[in-house]
Specification:
By secondary structure, this protein is an alpha/beta fold. Helices cover 36% and strands 14% of the residues. It is built from 26 helices and 21 strands. The strands form 4 sheets. Strands 11-12-10-13-14-9-15 form a 7-stranded parallel β-sheet, sandwiched between helices. A 6-stranded parallel β-sheet has the order 16-21-20-17-19-18, sandwiched between helices. A hairpin with a 4-residue loop joins strand 3 (254-262) and strand 4 (267-272). Helix 11 crosses helix 26 and helix 23 runs antiparallel to helix 24 (787-798). The chain is elongated and about 110 Å long. The protein starts with 5 loop residues before the first helix and ends in an 8-residue tail after the last helix. Residues 88-173 and 799-808 have low confidence and may be disordered.
Amino acid sequence: MTANNAFTRLSKILELERKQGYRNKAVIGGLDKLAGRWEHDARAETSDDTAVSEIMALMLGYPALDDPTVRERIIEKILARVDAMSGAPAPSADGESPAELPATVKDATERPAEPSLPPIIKPTPSKPGNGLPEPLPAPRQTPRPETLSTSAPRAETQTTEPRTKDPARRPARTELPAFGLEADVTRLPSVGPAQAQKLEKLGVHSIRDLLYLLPHRYEDYSQFRTIDRLRHGEQVTIIATVWKIESRIIGEGRKMVTAVVGDGTGEIMMTWFNPYIERQIQRGRAYRFSGKIDNYRGRPLMRNPILESLDKQDINTGRIRPIYPQTEGLTTNWLSGVMKKAVDAWGEDLPDFLPEDVRRQADLMPLGEALSQIHFPDNQLRLEQAHRRLSFDEFFLLQLGVLSRRKTFRDQTAKPLPSDAPLVAAFVDTLPFPLTGAQQRALGEIVGDLGRSQPMSRLVQGDVGSGKTAVAAAALWLAVANGAQGAIMAPTEILAEQHARSFTKMFAEIAHPQYQRSVRIALFTGRMSQGERDAALAELANGDIDIAVGTHALIQEDVTFRELAVAVVDEQHRFGVEQRAALRQKGIQPHVLVMSATPIPRSLALTLYGDLDVSVIDEMPPGRTPIKTKWLTSVQRERAYAFIRRQVESGRQAFMVYPLVEEGEQPDVLAAVTEHERLGREVFPDLRLGLLHGRLKGDEKDTVMRAFSDGEFDVLVATSIVEVGIDVPNATVIVIEGAERFGLAQLHQFRGRVGRGQHESYCILLSDADAGDGAQRLQALETNNDGFALAQIDLEMRGPGDFFGTRQSGLPPLQTAELGDLRTLELARAAAQRLFAEDPHLTHPDHQELAQQVAAFWSGAADQS
């Protein structure tokens, strides 16, 4: 900037105001009269509107301050801002007088005009994108801060931007305490035993825990405004002087405090329902007020604004304000103050566990800087950069653990199961249908894995009805053909029974190649009598049973195989990692195949299931008719009932799915128990209705599902329990009530309950959703039958969160990283693979801190079931 710009001229005027004893006579009419002229020049010379607005607000409020000491603080604050903008040192309080001053500068006796009432603010629609989703807090792990606008593009390569050095915002650095990050939080000022006990409810015990208790959303008060420029619905900060304070008791003994404040351009009313506010605010003093602009009888109003004195550092006002997870007895203001002390003391010097070359290649902030900015961001850009760094950390630690798990498993030795084309064809040729190209590709990958002495660890993804079971049966056949045994574990008895029937048919026409007898299939469930179970266990142990099909009953302690070589887990996301490990332990390093009908994008699968090779069956068998999907509103419900009746009259069956089990759980939401009774009494009195929900006992559920499968019910009224595990070829219609309350992947699974036979099938979505994510999900389902395409849509819509049940995957929960952020995800995976190839055990001296972080990140993963 030139030496004679708006900022240097203002600096000279402020120096004269100092010399004149803060009497507001350095310029004709006072600083408030100068403000308008100065603003025009300043905005033409800088793009920093926030700085100009803050200086303007301070100048406009200056005449109303009678206390010279307060006026002095205001001048110093303006000079600090001017100094930052001009790049020149501010004149000292005892320095020489300016060499030249504008012609307008002289002593003046005019007093500033009394502030007039501001114009009426007309309501305008609030801009979208100010709110933030609320992620789960995650002490000891990298939690998820959200950007202020969920639609804003993520910053990628801007970490080289010079850090903001704003004297008004950044006080002298707090000295680093002698105690370390693992010290108890009670070592911090303002944190006594009572507060520490409350912090424990948020998972905070140590200083490190506190630093990782990240905001779950933000409020943007970084925009400074003068009162005459306020607009309805804005979140802003104003600097104004308190003219009047009043309080009165309103209903039930509550006290309402009101204040009228002004800044020279107008007045605005403030209201609080906090009686303690009277102790914090004084008439005649200026404060920063941050809040949302509302209207009361046509006048501007702030309800419950946050206020801070001008001589205090702005932690909660005039900036992007962090909002932390709440617990009773701890306020956001208190927590912000404590967090500021911790960040100032430890933030900049926090050891960075990420290797320097990894950090630089990914263009990431240092960890300490990221934590400082995630708590108290300078601006939106810095917040996005901080979020990107912490997201990278989670993906990086996740992938290192996954690669380690993969290496541990693959370092074991498994029984090779060699095969040739005739051996595979011996099974495939007995199937009543040809394999699709996708099935053949997946089977080829499995055959290659099984032929090695390294244990197979493969995930097969496929949409509902894509033929995963036939591929799994072929893998089990190769175990049997090599003189060993196979097993498949399903999440429900009904699904296990279906697999047992399917396998019995598949293997009916093929003989055991070694023993020249039929392949023997046995079903293990909780319904077996003790005698049946004992006999089956004996046959399994001596090898007379070739393939065991079952539920959790397969992993009980008394189940022993002679030689388990291939273990298959169906609907793998329904099992915890310990259950899958228990099945694997039934053999000596068996080959493991897991199947999922919940497709996810391949890049995501490779990261979250990095310990598994991935096969995708993305082709449907020929002749399978797509299910017709229709979205109806509640006023069209009778059409759905009439359609069900016509299907039943044609000999078909129907599902009706409800969001709740019983009424009263949520108002205005239909429930299965109540609707089952009403439908049987008023709508379908002549039809046979079954009822299925999660509160039934296990044997009761199995009885109902078996009866529906056997055709004893025309209509099954159910909850989400029917999402998987029911194969009823005769069912041709499913009606989903309150469809907007279900996720897209779940709706697609519901739809997959029909269309499993030769008859045309239908899915009816009943919902009154008219906007938002719920309506988008229904529109996507109505127009798309491709599970992989829907999975991508679901990922894009859902963004952060538990996309497909990672709680069941044996992986640590992702608290900060967004699964939709595939760019950062893939960047972290590539970095982890490079590092792992060089130092798989993280034994290099430079990787010791990283090894500790990996261990801490994965410490609770085995419990995620």
